[in-house]
Design goal:
The complex is a heterotrimer of chains A (about 300), B (about 375) and C (about 290). Chain A is mostly helical and about 300 residues long. In chain A, about 75% of the residues lie in helices and about 0% in strands. Chain A contains 14 helices and no strands. With about 375 residues, chain B is an alpha+beta fold. In chain B, about 45% of the residues are buried. With about 290 residues, chain C is an all-alpha fold. Chain C has two domains: about 60 residues, no CATH class; about 210 residues, MetI-like (MetI-like fold). Chain C is globular. Classes of the chains: A mainly alpha (about 300), B alpha+beta (about 375), C mainly alpha (about 290).
Chain lengths: ~300, ~375, ~290
């Protein structure tokens, strides 16, 4: 190969070099801004950086501090509650809506975009809307009172123990339609002849879904899980807009924790170590998934 | 001076060699067909001639110029692809003249060339259409037009007929053959269809597992296949391969095998060579084409070596012009090709006329023809 | 629409169907309610909101909150309304979308039609970059923007969004060009077209749908971004989302809910319009980002 290239004509040489030349800016950007930065943040997490990066090596001290911080354990357990509920509710609603919509529903063309449009909104907009809907003084609670249901209370957003569930509610509102679309695509890909065969075999609709259709949606379940898990670990905007992490620390999650420790509390070393933990969590979910997806392709 | 010379060419993907030391020389005006099952390396070889794939070792010459490192567009070749590869966003006229445009041929010349080619292929009325608006046969013509307009030294065809339906395929086959005869073009043509290979070519290279199994004229390939692979790949139904053994008696050489009832059948070779005589007492595989096993009335009258044997007729398949009769020789399933009106019935003992002029012996170990 | 291919052959009884429609309509109310109520209340004077029912139609219809949100509302310390930030967002989104889509298209072209040893590794690196939590790059990014003088500027934000959008655009174009027949590229090579000629003349004219998908995806994501805007922008470059958050969560003075809603709708409008105009491409983008291929 090397010998043929040596006496190659101008065109041939150009076409062996050009593709790599074209990729190189992207490669450089990604290597520096993604992987270089990741390494830099990992490095910082082992230093005594506070307001600015500094390079005094402190070993695992930041991680040690991090895991002993009450603030961090609150953030982690909030994330655990949030992501468990968020993922499972989204999948249940998404699957149910998809199955319902798949029954030759008249007006599907109208309903589907209604379910999906919140996905086009910014989390900040979603947060603004729900913050006010959930506000007991003027939102839902007030409306119910005005309509004569005086005993109705819905003040979770002001309540330390329940505030995290309001985040779940708003997040489900935003993304469950998207999960519906994923399941619907999966349902539409199922071979109808097989369903007819099963009906002739005497399967009821319920059995049909439980035994034949839902098991075939495995790839859609997997994708939905991965995407939702990834979204929930990254989610920052919604919490800022809806509760700002409060009341108190009731809705603090790792993403908000990282931001406040790094940029407002001047504990950059600890902020960096929390970011590393977040990355590792996402990597543990994404890498096997991406690996499997890429291998299927080749 | 040879026109296209493939010299000791190999192709490896990493440690795996997929094409082994191929040597083929093509003269001007020849129609060479590379034929073989999928994965035999024929398309890889064609792509290497085109310059679309790198050669791992060896060299390809076109008009005595080494092609290593020469860009496909500078080789003065043209190629017709299996999918036709028409540019979907361009009209037929743009498709045909794109190559000229890329070679900076001035517009008036391009249009003259377009008109000339369109006339040959009768596609003048299609100039302004997009490929999506054409039928399969029309696309095929446009793809050929794109190749013709370049007036190349060598035409390369990569299974160009395999996407057409059966009838159109036969028609286009005839057209390609006409084109070759009218233009005296040099063509390398890849196909997996052995009938296409036999009908179109002046020479055939039968390939398997990255080796050229045999290179020769269609008649050579058909009558004297170099080995069992070629024998069974070329011809339909394929050649009968009958386990037998060689016996010498009074200077005559016989192949001995058994019929369906277990009786020994001796078939005399008309002109046994030294090599065959040396197999005395050993087993061989006897290759006999279906048309060389017939009913006695249907046997070739010019042949002096017709031998009649008794055997049980198996399944009968009338096929219009012929009737195929299954039977068993030496334990192997065989097919006889009889006249359409041969009076033969399933299960009866029947006289089979075997034309030993057409019999080909093979070595059962290395599977090569015994010459 | 990508989803609407074949209808199921499952039959349902009429009682079940009533139930189905009921559930489906209830859910559509759930999804519509927040936005509809927001629109209604953005057209009321403030007194009707604080003293009245949010579900009620406005007694006095007014566009005052919209004008205020756009032009005069207090954001941070300046009473500028959202309009300067709207233009900030536009100035950031347009180049970022254009550059990342262009680079993604070229990457996809090379990765499918000019394959070389190690291209899968390259693609894997790009793909994983789509999914990193951005917190991991915030600190070094702030440093680099500071050192290069791009901190707080629109070009700085454009750079950030190009870098972190590149993985997705590359993914889209790679998956799209995978299905593009390689024989066409070979035919063009034999015809004498070079690397860029093949791209411009052969691939790009057939890339309309995927360009739309990529542009919409990038537009939506960059327009809706908050984290990078909040971290790296200053007053002259702050995007819409950050300004909206400042408007809504400012603690000084009376909370003008109607103005907040008008502002939120203004901030949502560009992406909503895109969604309404090109919904099916939007869905395709979402799908491609989740189920690859």
């Amino acid at each position: 190969m090397a010998t043929t290239l040596a006496r190659a004509d101008y065109r041939t040489r150009l076409q062996t070099i050009l593709p790599k030349l074209v990729l190189s800016p992207s490669l450089a950007l990604i290597l520096l801004f993604v992987y270089g930065f990741i390494l830099f943040t990992i490095y910082l997490s082992f230093t005594d950086s506070r307001m600015l990066p500094s390079f005094g090596w402190v070993g695992f001290e930041n991680y040690d501090k991090l895991f002993r911080l009450r603030h961090w354990s609150v953030a982690v357990s909030n994330l655990a509650i949030f992501s468990t509920l968020y993922i499972s509710i989204c999948i249940v609603i998404g699957l149910a809506l998809a199955i319902f919509l798949d029954q030759k529903i008249r007006g599907e063309g109208v309903l589907r975009p209604i379910y999906l449009y919140p996905m086009a909104l910014s989390f900040i907009v979603t947060g603004t809307a729900w913050k006010w809907l959930l506000d007991p003084g003027i939102g839902l609670e007030n409306t119910m009172h005005l309509w004569g249901w005086d005993s109705f209370t819905f003040n979770w957003i002001k309540d330390r123990n329940n505030a995290i569930y309001t985040i779940v509610l708003a997040a489900v509102w935003q993304t469950s339609g998207f999960v519906m679309a994923m399941f619907l695509a999966g349902l539409r890909g199922i071979d109808n002849e097989m369903l007819k065969a099963a009906q002739i075999d005497g399967a009821s609709n319920f059995q049909l879904y439980r035994r034949i259709i839902i098991p075939q949606l495995r790839p859609a379940f997997l994708s939905a899980f991965v995407i939702l898990a990834h979204l929930s670990i990254k989610s920052y905007d919604l919490i800022i807009a809806l509760t700002g992490g409060g009341p108190g620390r009731a809705t603090e999650v790792p993403a908000t924790f990282m931001y406040s420790y790094t940029f407002t509390r001047n504990q950059m070393g600890i902020g960096a170590s929390s970011a590393v933990i977040m990355l590792m969590t996402i990597a543990a979910i994404m890498i096997p998934y991406l690996y499997a997806e890429l291998r299927e392709k080749d | 001076m040879s026109f296209l010379k493939i010299e000791n060419v190999t192709k490896s993907f990493g440690p795996v060699e997929v094409l082994h030391k191929v040597d083929i020389t093509v003269e001007e005006g020849e129609f060479l067909v590379l034929v073989g099952p999928s994965g035999c390396g024929k398309s890889t070889l064609l792509n290497m001639i085109a310059g679309l794939e790198e050669i791992s070792s060896g060299e390809i010459y076109i008009k005595d110029q080494p092609m290593g490192g020469v860009h496909p567009s500078n080789r003065n070749i043209a190629m017709v692809f299996q999918s036709y590869a028409l540019y979907p966003n361009m009209t037929v006229a743009q498709n045909i003249t794109f190559g000229l445009e890329m070679h900076k041929v001035p517009k008036p010349e391009r249009e003259a060339a377009l008109d000339k080619v369109s006339k040959i292929l009768q596609i003048e009325q299609l100039h302004d259409r997009k490929p999506g608006q054409l039928s399969g046969g029309q696309r095929q013509r446009v793809a050929m037009g794109r190749a013709l307009v370049r007036n190349p030294d060598v035409f390369l065809f990569d299974e160009p007929l395999s996407n057409l339906d059966a009838k159109l395929r036969v028609d286009m086959r005839t057209e390609i053959k006409k084109l070759h005869q009218n233009l005296a073009a040099t063509i390398v043509y890849v196909t997996h269809d052995q009938i296409e290979a036999l009908t179109l070519s002046t020479r055939i290279a039968v390939m398997n597992n990255g080796y050229v199994q045999q290179l020769g004229t269609p008649k050579e390939i058909y009558d004297t296949p170099a080995n069992i692979f070629v024998a069974s790949f070329i011809g339909s139904p394929s050649m009968n391969l009958i386990p037998a053994s060689v016996r010498m008696e009074d200077g005559d050489c016989f192949a001995e095998t058994t019929n369906s009832t277990g009786d020994v059948i001796s078939l005399k070779f008309p002109n046994p060579g030294e090599a065959l005589r040396a197999y005395n007492g050993k087993s061989i595989i006897l290759g006999i084409r279906p048309e060389a096993i017939t009913d006695p009335e249907g046997a070739d009258r010019h042949s002096k070596n017709i031998q009649t044997v008794k055997n049980t007729a198996g399944v009968i398949e009338p096929a219009g012009s012929d009737t195929f009769v299954a039977n068993t020789l030496g334990g192997a399933e065989c097919v006889a090709r009889m006249r359409a009106d041969a009076e033969v019935h399933f299960g009866e003992i029947f006289d089979f006329a075997i034309n030993m002029d057409k019999a080909v012996p093979f070595d059962p170990e290395n599977e090569n023809r015994i010459i | 629409m990508a989803v609407a291919s074949v209808e199921t052959s499952i039959r349902t009884g009429s009682m079940t169907r009533v139930f189905l429609y009921l559930v489906l309509i209830l859910f559509s109310l759930f999804y519509l309610l927040p936005f509809v109520v927001m629109v209604l209340n953005s057209l009321k004077p403030l007194s009707e909101i604080t003293g009245g029912n949010m579900m009620a139609l406005p007694e006095v219809w007014t566009v005052e909150p919209w004008i205020s949100a756009w032009a005069t509302a207090q954001i941070g310390i300046e009473p500028t309304g959202l309009s300067p930030y709207f233009w900030n967002s536009i100035k950031m989104v347009v180049p970022a979308v254009a550059i990342s889509t262009m680079l993604g298209a070229l990457n996809g072209y090379v990765l499918t039609k000019w394959r070389f040893r190690g291209d899968t590794i390259f693609f894997g690196l790009m793909l994983f970059a789509c999914f990193i939590p951005f917190q991991i790059v915030l600190i070094p990014m702030a440093r680099v923007l500071g050192l290069t003088g791009l901190a707080g500027s629109t070009p700085g934000l454009v750079l950030v969004h190009v870098v972190y959008g590149l993985g997705f655009t590359t993914l889209y174009f790679r998956n799209y060009y995978m299905a593009f027949p390689t024989e066409l590229v070979r035919a063009a090579q034999i015809d004498g077209a070079g690397f860029f000629n093949i791209f411009w003349r052969i691939l790009l004219p057939s890339s309309g749908p995927i360009i739309v998908v990529s542009v919409i995806w990038q537009f939506t994501n960059i327009w809706n971004d908050f984290l990078f805007g909040a971290s790296f922008a200053d007053l002259d470059s702050q995007p819409m989302t950050v300004a909206l958050n400042n408007l809504v969560s400012s603690s000084t003075g009376v909370k003008e809910y109607n103005v907040h809603f008008a502002g939120a709708i203004i901030a949502a409008l560009p992406t909503l319009v895109v969604y309404i105009v090109a919904g099916r491409y939007f869905v395709r983008g979402l799908m491609a980002g989740s189920v690859k291929g």
